[in-house]
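Homework help thread (please don't just give me the answer)

Our assignment gives two proteins as sequence + structure token strings and asks us to describe the second one. The first is just a warm-up. Here they are:
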Amino acid sequence: MTWSLIARDRDTGALGIAVASRFFACGSLVPHVGPSAAFATQAFVNPVWGTEGLRRLEAGEAATQVLADLVARDAGAAQRQAHLMDADGRGAVHTGGECIDWAGHLMGDGFSIAGNMLAGPQVLDETARVYLESSALAFPERLLAAMMAGEAAGGDKRGRQAAGLRIHHGQDHPWLDLRADDHGDPLAELSRLLRVARERYLHVARIMPTADRFSGDPDRSETDARIARAEAARIAAGQPSASFATDP
């Protein structure tokens, strides 16, 4: 199952994984992201590769060393696929010989893409092309635009069902973590959820506590004012809210 994109944003240092698949809730098992490293485990997924692998990457181990050890220990490694990025930006990838065609990977400066059960190599090629050509977009939109290009090129050859987007800004907790677990157009649903997040959630995320600022910013007056200004601008532009939330 699955193809995924790992990338680090040069401007902000943010680290993210976007994933899509004809497999239920792929966003719950495939992406593992931390403050400085990321690990995507897929195909006949072994989630322990992700949890152990990320922990070791965050402890400073090199991507190639971590992945080689996981492959060597796993009797099912021929059915697994994984790619990862360590704290120094170095990547590693494993596509087992029993992964279902089309299966492969593509790595570039600051990003890595891997997939299996795909319509063909053009899925990864288009994902990479649009990622590279979309540097003017904000990082979350850039990741989704790249994945949507891969989907337009054929995506998972079995169809569509789920997608996920997880981004960290140097913390153990995610800055953004969106999932569409069972949807006819899951990447489009993630795009809607991202628009909802920009209406309020990401304004609040700016003042949330961090490891270095344990209390964050308890004074939310400026954040509330920023949210109000953004809402007024959206209404003035004739743009309805993207949210399905209801009022009392």
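The one we have to describe:
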Amino acid sequence: MDATGREHLGRKARADRALERAAAELELLLREACAALRPFPSFPNAFFTNAIECDPGAGGDPERGCVVVTEDGELRELEIGVDHEAVELTGSWDPVTARKEETRPLALHPRDYVLYAYGGLVAVTEALLERDGGEEEEDAP
């Protein structure tokens, strides 16, 4: 490889390291924000899951399911459905018994992590501001 090719690859390597640093910083900020949000809110229409949806904007993967940030600041994919095994075992379509809520860890490229983590940080920050604003209004005479 000639000097020009090494220069191009060096530039890409620096960009990769910049993305990795940004992802690491966002991971820390997201964990801090989630730790400050107590109690952590339930996911809308969920029975058992405390999480906030991450909106990655136009850069998100349309094939990826619902990405949420959980109480511990982790990004996970949330799937809500019916637990057919529980229905068969109990013989009941009770909404609570039949409910299946599952979060799965995500393996994201730093570029994608930055998008989802930033969306999650924005959502958690909005929840914190709403909570804090609500407390101030309640304390007002």
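TA reply:
I won't write it for you, but here's a hint about the kind of observation we're looking for: Residues 44 and 118 are 20 Å apart (CA to CA).
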